[in-house]
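Need tokens for this chain, all 93 residues.
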Amino acid sequence: MRKSIYSDDYQHFLLELRNARVSAGFSQEQLAAALGAHQTLVSKVERGVRRLDVIELRLWLLALGRTFPEFCGQLDSRLARHGRLPLARRPRS
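Here are the structure tokens for all 93 residues:
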């Protein structure tokens, strides 16, 4: 199994994460300040250089005024629009 960081699904996750920041009206610097972090961390995460674990993702979303379920629903919708089926529904190779 190849690492998910290189998958199309992960690229969609990164786009949704960036969209969440932009739609909340935050710059990378503003989000970093809200998290008590450096702007470079936000940049690295958005570029896929640094991964977030689920707890960190929740903190980011809270800082952006978003809920975890809301974000996951939007990510799931994005993936469905791009033909990315859940693993349980994908044809077996």
